[in-house]
Structure formats: C-alpha cells, structure tokens
UniProtKB/TrEMBL annotation:
One of its GO terms (biological process) is defense response. Pfam families: LRR_1, LRR_14. It is a single-pass type I membrane protein. It catalyses: L-threonyl-[protein] + ATP = O-phospho-L-threonyl-[protein] + ADP + H(+); L-seryl-[protein] + ATP = O-phospho-L-seryl-[protein] + ADP + H(+). It is an enzyme of class 2 (transferase). It comes from Triticum turgidum subsp. durum. Residues 13-120, 170-264 form the Disease resistance R13L4/SHOC-2-like LRR domain. The keyword Transferase applies. This is non-specific serine/threonine protein kinase.
Length: 324
C-alpha cells in the first residue's frame, strides 16, 4: 500500500506485471495521467483504490477483466467518458465508488449484473438518462448515491425491493413525477435525500413507515398538498427539510413527537394556520426556519422551551400578537 504519500507522475504501464498482487492502494497522492489499460493484467486483485488523485481520461475497459475484485474506488479524480459496460463482469464486486469525476452518458445496464454490491456511489458526475428500471437486481445494496448528476425521469418502482438500503441519495438531479408510495418498503432507511429535483404531487403518507430515518430532505422540489401527520411516527429524525416547495395546510401537531430533531426547515412554502404549541416539545432543536409562509396568530409561548435554539427565523409570515 502506497496511499497517503506525496507520489506524483503517472501510473507506469509496467504495473500490470505485478500479476500476483491482491491489493493496490495508491489513493490520496498526486498522481496524474490515464489509468493504464495494463492494470487489467492484475488478475488476482481483490481491492483497487486509485481515489483522490488527479487521474484523467477514460476508465479502461480492461478493468472488467479483474473478476476477483470486491472493491473498486476511483472517486475524486478527473475521469471522463462513459462508465465502461465491462464493469458488469465484476461479479464479485461489493463496493463500487466512482463519484466526484466528470463521467458522462447513462448508467450502463450491465451494472445490474453486480448482484453482490452493497455500496454504489456514482454521485457528482455528469451522468444523464434514466435510473435503470431493474434496480431490484441489486437487492443487496445498503448505500446508493446517484446525486448531483443530470438524471431524469421518474424513480423506478423496482427500488421498493432494495429493502437493505440504509442510505438513498438522489439529490440534485432532474428527477420528476411522484415520490413513489412504494418507498414505504425501505424499512431500513436511515438517510433519504430527494432534494433538488422536480418531484411533484404530495408527500406520501407511507413515508411514516420509515421509522429508522434520521435524515429526511425533500426540499427544492415542486411538492404540494399537506404535510402528512404520519411524519410524526419518525421519532428518530434529527434533520427534516421540506423547504422551497408549495406545501399548504397546517403544520401537523404530530411534529411535536420528533423530539430528536435538531434542524427543522419548512421555509418558502404556503403553510398556513398557527405555529403549533407542540413545537415546544422539540427540546433538541437548534435551527428552526419557518420563513416565507402564511402563518398567522401569535408565537406560542412553548417556543421558550427550546433552550438549545441558536437560529429562529419566522419572518415573512402574518404573525401577530405580543412577543413574550
């Protein structure tokens, strides 16, 4: 292992002669140039980590010949071009991370062959097109991040079968349509981020079944309708942001059940009615933003219970009465 050094220059093509090597870790250096296609000669590699360098050019298709690989990290480089379909030959792969590059094109269907994958991170590239329809082939996935790309279309219903997922991050794409009711089947989810897309319609009541959630980000979409009272079942939530949508109706009293919340953002919606007294039960809250709604009535005295509060934004509403 040669990671976390000051290595510079290009990876020599002769590296392919090290055919008995099991682990190659050159991460966190200053390496430049292309990944040599000769790396495909290292048939016994189980782990390949070239992350956090300045490598550019295409991912060589010869990597598809490294059929013993369980881990492939190429993230945080300057790699471009399409994800080679040959990666679909890496049937033993459990962890694939290609994030923070400039990869383009669509997500190749061949990646669905990687049925042992537990981690798939393709975030922060220039990937376009649809999320593959048959995502349920990757039924062992625990961590899926496709965020910060140019993906479009709807979220495939097949995601309902990824029941081992703990993290689902699709933020900052161009995904549209409804948030699928089927999301309720992802009972192990702890982190759900669908923000920065074009999702419309209402927040499904079934989201209240995701009782392990600690993070829920649905902000910067085109969601409408009421905030479902079923959110009150998510008693492990720490961060909740529904801001910058077109949500209407009242803040449900059930939000008072979310006593682990530290951040609550509901700003830039069309929420009306009074600020519920029940918000005073959120004793761990340190950031509350209800700006730019149509809230009326007085500020409830119970807000005074929020002794950890650092940030309180209530401007651009229709609040009245005394400040006590």
């Amino acid at each position: 292992m040669l990671h976390e050094n000051e290595l510079s220059g290009e990876i020599p093509s002769q590296i392919g002669n090290m055919s008995s090597l099991v682990t190659l870790n050159l991460s966190i250096n200053h390496l430049v140039g292309h990944i040599p296609c000769e790396i495909g000669h290292m048939k016994h590699l189980v782990a390949l980590d070239l992350s956090s360098n300045n490598l550019f050019g295409k991912i060589p298709s010869s990597i598809g010949g490294l059929t013993e690989l369980t881990t492939l990290y190429l993230y945080y480089n300057k790699l471009s071009g399409k994800i080679p379909r040959e990666l679909g030959y890496l049937l033993n792969l459990k962890d694939l991370q290609l994030g923070i590059n400039t990869l383009s094109g669509s997500i190749p269907q061949n990646l669905l062959n990687l049925t042992k994958l537990t981690v798939l991170i393709l975030r922060q590239n220039k990937l376009s097109g649809l999320i593959p329809q048959k995502m349920d082939y990757l039924s062992n996935l625990q961590y899926l991040s496709l965020s910060e790309n140019i993906l479009s279309g709807s979220t495939p219903n097949s995601i309902r079968n990824l029941t081992k997922l703990t993290t689902l991050s699709l933020h900052n794409n161009q995904l549209s349509g409804l948030i699928p009711q089927e999301i309720e089947y992802l009972a192990n989810l702890e982190y759900l981020d669908l923000s920065g897309n074009i999702f419309s319609g209402s927040i499904p009541n079934s989201i209240g079944n995701l009782t392990k959630l600690t993070i829920l980000y649905l902000y910067n979409n085109q969601l409408s309708g009421h905030i479902p009272r079923e959110l009150g079942y998510l008693e492990n939530l720490e961060n909740l942001s529904l801001s910058n949508n077109t949500l209407t109706g009242l803040i449900p009293n059930s939000i008072g059940n979310l006593t682990k919340l530290t951040i609550l953002y509901l700003y830039k919606n069309q929420i009306s009615g009074h600020i519920p007294q029940e918000l005073g039960r959120l004793v761990n809250l340190w950031d509350l933003d209800l700006v730019h709604n149509t809230l009326t009535g007085s500020i409830p005295n119970s807000i005074g219970n929020l002794t950890k509060l650092i940030v309180l934004y209530l401007s651009r509403n229709q609040l009245s009465g005394h400040i006590s």
